[in-house]
Amino acid sequence: MERDLIAKIQRLAGVRTKDSSVLVNIGDDCAVIAPSPDRYLIITTDTLVESIHFDLDYFDPWHLGRKTAAINLSDAGAMGGNPRWAFLNLAVRPGMTDRFWDNFSKGLLSRLSEYRVSLVGGDTVTAPDRLSFSLTLIGEVEKGKWLSRSHAQLDDLIYCSGNLGEAAAGLKLLRKYKEKRRPFEGRKGTHAISRTAIKRLVGKHLDPEPRVTLGQALAESGLVKTAIDISDGIATDIAHVCKSSKIGAEVWAKEMPISRALKEAYKILGISPLNLALTGGEDFELLWTVSKRNESEVRKIATEVLGYRPFRIGKIVQGDGVLLKTSQGAKEITYQGYEHLT
Amino acid sequence: MERDLIAKIQRLAGVRTKDSSVLVNIGDDCAVIAPSPDRYLIITTDTLVESIHFDLDYFDPWHLGRKTAAINLSDAGAMGGNPRWAFLNLAVRPGMTDRFWDNFSKGLLSRLSEYRVSLVGGDTVTAPDRLSFSLTLIGEVEKGKWLSRSHAQLDDLIYCSGNLGEAAAGLKLLRKYKEKRRPFEGRKGTHAISRTAIKRLVGKHLDPEPRVTLGQALAESGLVKTAIDISDGIATDIAHVCKSSKIGAEVWAKEMPISRALKEAYKILGISPLNLALTGGEDFELLWTVSKRNESEVRKIATEVLGYRPFRIGKIVQGDGVLLKTSQGAKEITYQGYEHLT
């Protein structure tokens, strides 16, 4: 099989592979690419394992391909970089059909092509019993203009790009009902939540939007230095920022961006929307910090990219962890998952 | 676990991580690296899955780490490139000890540091039942000076850098006896083959030598344009060159570099040395083609790097496949594995 599947996926890419920076493509010992002069490279890689990170009972191959791409694109966005070239490692178990790979490939390429990323290499191997993927993304960033986790300053405000907790709620709904392909339609026990809400939450898990354009705009402005994508939930992701920046943070319960759909899901899931918003992973929203001085300018930039105002959810304070401020007081939530907060 | 293990491996690297080209290291959303000006990038990635590509019954973690690195280094060498930065994806199953990871890391880093490659990123995830790794290597190559599979010309001579078939014989010996750690010592049935021969063959499987320096020297000379590393056996690897270069090749049975150890192994394995030399994978020797005009100069360069004369094993001819020439005549071996040749 060795590389055949990736060559096939690349053929599906058709016109998208006509990238003049790609000098040697799939089919040699290495890919050869010409980076832009005067740029630094950004590199990210993520692995997804069947039954740990996804379940084919509820993940159709097209969405799985799109999500594989989105996870890495989100990391590139969190650095403010321009993703350009992708490499796919596939470990393929028996029982996968050509149709599965066609749809997976189309999904993967549909997300990559939104950002003009070329798939230029990879490796295909056999696995005895479980499918897994690694995608590696190489991109570029202007010298001195990348975002990192380590530049948060005292009194910076913390912003995020969208509603939190939705992807986690979507996953829980999917697991709860294990519906295939068209979740929840015509099922008993679904009357407590609208189809619109289900579609929104499940959609956020299956097809998250990587905030690449927003990350680039923030980096380009020169007014933002610190960002992270929300992959593990903000109780953990803000803790990463605190650790890297050697400072503390507080988040404000009443400012959490919680959608009506998430509130509806409470009736089925029994987990509080605030809890899911603080600890639910895989929203892939962008979180950044900004000084008071630059706040309004940066909010304007973000609003233009997003089409709505981003959410101000907390600020950087003295200390070394993450505090949740509620009307009842303050509570440490550093690195906590929802198990600790229920 | 998320990234912790890779951070730990990197800490073990100690001084080796002090690489001024690495601007953002493990622990952010992406690594940031500064490539050299006026170079192209080469990228290769390979995946190894437990029980498909290795078996912990006979692979100790130190050698497994070294081989994970060597496979990718070999690809970089086959492009004539300079490997510089590595990214490791680990899918870790239950039951792995700290000691395993310490030894794996030390092995991996020992091979990478021979070529001054820095481990700068990766991903660690949980796998339910099987260990797997992907290593991705980024390197650099002078513009217009890389080796590829696609420039073999009619009448070029085909050379290779070392004995063939040894790694395949080593693997078969390991599988045959499933000895742990110290194969074959004091076992019945081993009297037919010397300990020196066993050590040599098994060593070639566990710890192959990537021909990075040789590939660089050949590319640098400007006299060689076509190379491949022998990972699948020459019946397949020369077929790759033929396909990419749109031409045929013949290999000469009497010129095959067959070691005395491989001949000895026949007594135990019952597979002819010629057969193993033509079809045995994972030797990771370098194969290249050179015009008659440049032959002696290139042989001199290779001899200097290797410390012995490389082996002239065939030539490029009209056609589209690989022919084996023996005293009995010619026989097509394109893409054949040893199953077809016994």
Walk me through what this model shows.
Two copies of one chain form a homodimer. Chain A has 342 residues and is α+β, with helices and mostly antiparallel strands. Chain A starts with a helix and ends in a 10-residue tail after the last strand. In chain A, a hairpin with a 2-residue loop joins strand 12 and strand 13 (329-332). Chain A is globular and about 60 Å long. Chain A has ten helices and 13 strands. Chain A has a seven-stranded mixed sheet. In chain A, strands 3-6-4-5 form a four-stranded mixed sheet. The first copy, chain A, folds into two domains: 4-142, PurM-like, N-terminal domain (60s Ribosomal Protein L30, Chain: A, 2-Layer Sandwich), CATH 3.30.1330.10; 157-340, Phosphoribosyl-aminoimidazole Synthetase, Chain A, domain 2, CATH 3.90.650. Chains A and B meet through strand 2, strand 3, helix 2, strand 4 and strand 5 of A and strand 2, strand 3, helix 2, strand 4 and strand 5 of B. Strand 3 (39-49) of chain A pairs antiparallel with strand 2 (31-33) of chain B.
Q: What can be said about this structure in brief?
A:
Chain A is of the alpha+beta class and 342 residues long. Chain A has helices at residues 4-13, 61-78, 98-114, 166-177, 195-206, 212-221, 234-245, 260-269, 273-279, 295-306; strands spanning 22-24, 31-33, 39-49, 82-92, 118-126, 132-142, 157-160, 226-229, 248-252, 286-290, 311-317, 322-326, 329-332.
